[in-house]
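Blackboard transcription, Thursday session:
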Amino acid sequence: MNVVGQLAPLAFGLAAIGSGIGVGIIVGKTIESVARQPELQGRLSGLMFLGIALTEALAFIAIAVAFIPFPAP
Amino acid sequence: MLLPALSLVKADESDGGFVGPSIAEFVPPGLLFVGTPFELNRVMLIRLLVVFALVLILWLGTRRLQLVPSRGQAALEYILGFVRNSIVFDTLGEKDGKRFMPLLMTMFFLIIGMNLTGIIPGLQIAGTAVIGLPLILAVVAYVMFVYAGFKKFSWRYLKNSLVIPGVPWPLHIMLIPLEFLSTFILRPVTLALRLLMNMVAGHMLLVLCFTATQFFFFSVLANGQLIGLLGIGTFAFGIAFTVLELFVAVLQAYVFTILTAIYIQMSLADGH
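(Written on the board underneath:)
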C-alpha cells in the first residue's frame, strides 16, 4: 500500500509538542506567581507574553516550512 | 462574495466528490484593474473597506466629545482606555508610553479591524490572512524598536542588546550570535508569522467546516443518503469555531501590540 501526502503537517505536529509543553509551563508558572504576589501581575504578564513569544516561534517556523519551495530531489 | 468558497465543492471522483480548502483560497482572482500593477482582489478590497470603516468609526466616535459621554463615545473610550492603560502604560510607563501611543494605538485598531473581517458573513476572510499586511506591520514594529534604541543610546544600543552582563567572557562567543538571532531576526519574523498563521489556520478551519456542511446537505443528503445528517455536526462546529475566531481576532491584536510595546521597552531599558 502506498501512502501519499505531505510530510509538512507531521513536522508541525512534532514542533507543536515542544512549544505546547513550553507555553503550558510558562503560563502555569505565571499563574502560580500571580497567586503568590497579585500586585506583580502587570509586570509578570508582560514577561509571560515575551516568554510565550520566544517559545512559540518554533511552532510558527514549522508551519512556514510547508510553504518554503524546496527543490525537488 | 460567498461564491469562491462555495465553488470549492466540485465534482471530483477520488474523494466521493468532496474538495477541501487549499492554499489557493488566499489568492483569489483579481476583480478591479486587472492586468495593471494595482490589481485589486477580494482581500485587497476587504482591506480598503476596513480602513474606510475604521476611519469612519473613529471620526464619528470622537467628533463631538462630551464630558458626559454618549453610549458610542463611552464604548470607544473604554477600548481606547484599555489599550492605553493595560498595554501601553503597563509596559512602557507614562513618559515613554505617551511617545509611542499613536503607533501602538494604530496597530491595535488596524489589526483588530482586519482580523474581525474573518468572521463577518459576506466578507469571510481576514485582511491579515495574506502575508503582505502582517509583514508591513512587523517591519514597522522592527524599525520602531531599533530606532528607539538607537535614538536613546546611539551605538551603545547594540552592546546593550547583544552583550549579557555578568557571564564569563568565553561564553560571549556563543551568546552574542544567539542574542543577535533572537533580537534582530526572530523577533520580526515571529511577529509576522504569528499573526498570519493564526488567521490562515482559522480561515481554513471555517472553510473546511462550512464546505463540509454544504457537501453533506446538498450532495449527500439530497441523494437520499442519511449519512448526510453529519452536516448538522459540521455546521455546529462551524458556528463554534466562528466564536473561537472572534476570541482569536481580539487576542492576536492584543498580543501583537503588547509584544511591540515590550520590544520597544527592552530597547529603552538600560542593559538587562
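Lecturer's comment: Residues 22-64 of chain A form one domain.
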